[in-house]
Request: fold
Amino acid sequence: MALSPRLPAKLSEPARALLKGEAGLLRELAYGLRGPYHVLFPDAFAANLTSFLDVLDETGVPGRVHYAKKANKAACWIETCADLGVGVDVASAQELRDALGHGVRGTRIVVTGPAKADDLLRLAVRQGCLITVDALDELERVAELDGARIMLRVTPPDQPHSRFGMTEQELERALARCGPLRLEGFGCHLSGYAVQPRAEMAALLLRWCERARARGIAAGGVGIGGGFAVDYLAAGDWREFTDDPSHFHAGRRFDGFYPYHSPVAGAAALRAVLAATPSGGSADVAALLRDAGVTLILEPGRALLDQAGFTVFRIQGVKDRDYGIVTVDGTSLSLSEQWFGSEFLPEPIPVPAREGPAFETCVGGASCLESDMLTWRRIVLPGRPRRGDLLVYPNTAGYQMDSNESPFHGLPLPPKVVVNADGSWRLDRPPN
Reply:
């Protein structure tokens, strides 16, 4: 049987520094914390934020970046946003309180999500947040709250079955209702990561701003959300895997995966959107925004967390079958791509890297469920690992750490360890 193709993740220098040699800090933390844990790099997050802001500056596009808090709830990201004077995107009253409590001003917070709770709307209005209104009945509830700043969410024409936003007919009714309200623009929720659909949507939102202005409503912002891909893997490795995605434990099959290789990712994807020309036009998106005097509102999550953290498990057992079965001290609930009916494919890094022969294995969790697999795909380690060795899953800060966490079996949730550029570390301050 041929060995599985390799899918080694791209690694930042801070991550390499912690992994090299005996990885002393990682071992000490594994011993002291007595379970899996997450490592966070706030400097990487700050660098990603800055790269998005730089693109706006370079293109002369007025814009605001709001970190999508749902991607990772650690406090250190919000503290960094507050320090840099950038915003946060929230969708619950608790997320809003967390953002305010860690120093982000209400006027720099965007409140998204469908059919928002009354307590969230009241708090958002009192703190001066920008509220993305998703439906006509929500607009009526917001209209009862004096002083609300709102943005109307538009259903993408090429995603008519989306549960988010309003149709053209609903938007016309909303505009008729918005006369006395403070409408600041139009936004959208787009699935996928392609560049051109975002350019097309930006042009459509601009047209809605024009329609609002024709009614005397000073709508001056368009929000294209997030969806800026992260490039986890080298192109050749990803191509080899997609040519034959069959190397999975127990014959498991998945319908699809996140595009772990993306030739245009992060801030470069934003630059590509701004440089794209919408259909039937002659000017690119950046020029359209500049000419209209409209502010671009961005809500990236995963892209701001690229290389901003990894997850560490300790091996509790190793079995030998046709291929190995490694069991670690946590569960698959700590790698949340499973929540999306998929799998986190960048392969874990063994610490230490034992000498050969090569050891092909899957990776299971500590629960008594057959489905508790951190890695269904058969990965190839340089040698047979031992009980007590570490497995480090790279680049997991974006959505992997929080979306599906659970204290199943009474196992503790993995704590988050913040590591600074000077090598100092601390536990992340909890959001509550």
User: Anything to note?
Assistant: The CA atoms of residues 10 and 375 lie 18 Å apart. The mean pLDDT is 94.
